[in-house]
Amino acid sequence: MTLSSVEAAPTAAPEPGRVDRIRAAAYRIRHHALTMGEVQGQGYVGQALGAADMLASVYADQLTYRAEDPHWEGRDRFLLSTGHYAIGHYAALAEAGIVPVAELETYGSDDSRLPMSGMSTYTPGMEISGGSLGHGLTIAVGMALGLRLQGSASRVINFLSDGELDEGSTWEAAMGAHHHQLGNLTAMVDINALQADGATDTVLRTEPVTEKWESFGWYTQRVDGNDVGALLAAFDNIATRSAATGQPSVILCDTKVGRGVPLLETREKAHFMRIEEHEWQICREQLTAGYEGTASA
Amino acid sequence: MSTLTTAAGAAGSSAPVQAAKPKLKTSAMIASFADPGQKTTPAPFGHALVKAAEADTRIVGLTADLGKYTDMHIFAKAFPERFFQMGMAEQLLFGAAAGMAETGLIPFASTYSVFAARRAYDFLCLDIAEPNLNVNIVGGLPGLTTGYGPSHQATEDMAIFRGMPNLTIVDPCDSIDIEQAVPQLAASDGPTYLRLLRGNVPTVLDEYDYTFELGKAKVLRGGNDVVFVSSGLMTMRALQAAEALAKHNVDVAVVHTPTIKPFDSATVLAELSTDRLAVTLENHTVVGGLFETVASAVVTAGLGKRVVPIALPDQFLDAGALPTLHERYGLSVDRIVAKVLAELG
Questions:
Q1: Is residue A217 left, alpha or beta, with left meaning phi > 0 and alpha meaning psi from -120 to 50?
Q2: Which CATH class is domain A14-296?
C-alpha cells in the first residue's frame, strides 16, 4: 500500500481475496494487450500495460454494467479520453465480457470494431470517441449532470492522462464539476510522466498535480496506480465520502509504462513503442512469470 | 435604423460618412437591426424554447456566461432546474451538452457565434456531430449584427460550419422563423446550429403566406425581372429592396432559404432556371456561405447561370454603428437597390 494522499489512509484495507481477483483481471488485460500489439507489430502497448491495474479495478470491481446489454440505461459510464489507450480498453472490455476475446485479434485491422483510436460509434461499451485530448472530462460533466437530473444513481468515471492536463478544457471541466457539485463523477488520471514528445516534465510541467486538483475543489487522492490494493482503497474512500459531500473525486495514479514486462519497463520510454517480432513471446513469458511469482508471495 | 447610444464602447465611426450627418455611435451588445417603428417581438427564441420545453421534458438549456445576451435567461427563469450555467468555458459548454445528450436529454446550448465556431469547433465536431447527437447550438451575433469588430462579428460562421458532417444550419429571418424553428430543431435527430437573432427581433414573415419548414426554401413573392435568394436578416432586406425596386419598375421575386444545410437545391434551382437576374443576399462573408452554396448547386446541375452575390467582403470588418456598417458593406436596402439597378444597366 503506497497511498500517498493528502487524505487519511482508508480505515480498512481491501480484503486479500478482492485484491487477488483484480490482480488476476489485470494480468489477463495485459495478456490481451500483448496479443493485440502483436497483431499490429507495434502500438500503445506500454500505456496499456501501465494502465492495466486501473482498468481492472474499474471493470472488475467498480462498474455496474450488463455485458449482454452495453447500452443498459442503469449502467455506470466509463469514458476513455485517451483514444490511443483503446488497446487497453478493448482488453478490459474483453475481460468484462462486453467484447469477445476472439475479436481482439482484429485490433486495428480494416473493418474491425476495434480501431487504433477508440470511438463510440465502432465499439460496444465505448462511451465516447476519444483521441482529441481534453474532451473526456467535459463530456463526463454533462453526463453526470444529465444522469443526476434524471434521478439516476449511475456514476461517471473518466479516464484521462497526465498529458491531457496540458489542455485548458480539462480545467474548464474541473471547475464545472466542482461548481455543479458532481459527487457522481470520478476522474482517474494516469500519470505515466510520458507524452508524445517526451517526458512530461520536459514537454510542459504539470506538477504539482495534487495541489492543482485540490485547489479546483476536488476530493483528491494520489496513489501508486500499479498497486491494486491502493486503487481499491481509493475507490472505497470515495464511496464513503464523495457521494454525500457532492464533491467530485479524482484518483491520481502514478504508473509505470510497460508495467509487468521487465523487457519493456526498462526500454527507452516512447509514446509509440517498437517491439520486435521475436520479442512478443518473451514479453508474454515475462508477464506470466512476474504475475505467478508475486501471486504466490 | 437603430440609433441607440451607450457610453460603453462608444467608438465613433471613422468612415467618410457625409460630413453634415452626426456620426452614429456603436450600440451596446444588444443592438437591434429593426427599423424605427418596425413591428418586433421580444426574445422569440427564449419564449419558443420555454414552450417547447413545456411539451418535452427532455429539453434542457445551457449557456457560457451569455444567458442574458442569447435570450436563454427566459428559459432559465421558467425552468431553473433544467438550466445549466457552464461559465465562460465554451469547450465545457459543448462537451457537457454532448454528455447530456448521451443520457437522453435534448440540450440547447447558447453562446456567441464567434465562440461556438472559432473556439469550440473541435468539441462540436467530435463530441456532437460525429456521434450525431441531438444538441442544438445557438449562436448569437451571427454575421454583422454587432459593431464590436472582429472579436464579436461571426462573419464566417457558416463557412466554418458547412464543412461539418451531420450538422444542420439554420439562418432565420425574423421572430416567426425562430418561433417555428425551435420545436423543429428539438424534434430533429442530429445536431443543429441556429444563427440566433435576439432581443427585440423584427416580425416580418407574418405578412406572407409562410411557415418555416426545416430543410425547405420558400418563395415569398414572385417577380419577372430579378430573383433574390436570401437567408437570415437579409431576407427582410430583400423584401424591403423588392418593394423599393418596384418603384423603379423592376419586378423582383424573393426566395427565402432559412436552412443552409441541408440545402433545398430543388426549390432554388427551379427559380434560377429562368432568364431573370439571380442575386444571393446573406449576412455573411462571400466565402463559404449562401452564395457558394447556391453556386455549387447551380454548377452541379449544369445550369450555366450567372449569380450575383450580395454579401460581406472577405476581410475583417470595422467597428462602428450597425447602420453605418451595413451601409458600408452593402447590406442596406439602399445599397441592394443600387447594386441591382447597376446590374440591370
A1: left
A2: alpha beta
Q: How many contacts does A have with B, using Cβ atoms within 8 A? A: 104
- pLDDT in the model for residue B3: 39
Full-model pTM: 0.93
Q: Mutation target for A interface from B84, B92, B106, B121: give the one with most A CBs within 10 A.
A: B92
- Contact assessment for residue B102 and residue A142, using Cβ atoms and an 8 Å cutoff: yes
Q: Which residues 69-98 of B are in CB contact (within 8 Å) with A?
A: 81-82, 84, 86-87, 89, 91-92, 94-98
By DSSP bridging, strand B200-202 and strand B40-42 are antiparallel
For residue A115, the distance in angstroms to the closest alpha carbon of chain B comes to 15
What is the full DSSP assignment across B19-82?
TTSPPP-PPPSS---PPTT--EEE-HHHHHHHHHHHH-TTEEEEESS-TTTTTHHHHHHH-GGG
- Name the grid cell of A257: 509504462
Give contacts of A184 with chain B, Cβ < 8 Å. Answer: none
Contact B196, B110 (CB under 8 A): yes
Instruction: Establish if B130 touches chain A: CB-CB under 8 angstroms.
Output: yes
- pLDDT confidence of residue B242: 98
Strand duo B259-261 + B168-170: pairing: antiparallel
Q: How much is the pLDDT for B202?
A: 97
Nearest CA in chain A to B80: A149
What is the ipTM for the molecules in this complex? 0.93
Nearest to A138 among B81, B91, B105 (CB): B91
From A152, which residue of chain B is nearest by alpha-carbon distance?
Answer: B103
Predicted local confidence at residue B24, as pLDDT: 85
Q: Does A135 touch chain B (CB under 8 A)?
A: yes
Residue in this structure with the C-alpha cell 509509440, named with its chain if needed: A272
Q: Which of B74, B50, B270, B282 is nearest to B171 (CA)?
A: B282
pLDDT < 70 regions, chain B: 1-20, 28-31
Give the residue, B329 or A269, on which the prediction is more confident. B329
Name the amino acid, one letter, at B150: P
For residue A223, the one-letter residue type is V
**Chain Cα centroid distance, residue A29:** 12
CA distance B219 to B232: 14
The answer to whether residues B210 and B218 touch, using CB atoms and an 8 Å cutoff, is: yes
pLDDT digit string, tens, across residues B155-210: 999 999 999 999 999 999 999 999 999 999 999 999 999 999 999 999 999 999 99
Q: Which sign does the torsion angle of CA B108, B113, B117, B123 carry?
A: negative
Window A:198-257, CB contacts with B under 8 Å: none
Predicted confidence (pLDDT) per residue in A172-191, tens digit: 999 999 999 999 999 999 99
Q: Between B149 and A271, whose confidence is greater?
A: B149
Exposed/middle/buried for A297, CB within 10 Å: 0-12, 13-18, 19+? Answer: exposed
Which of A145, A157, A158, A160 to mutate: most B Cβ within 10 Å? A145
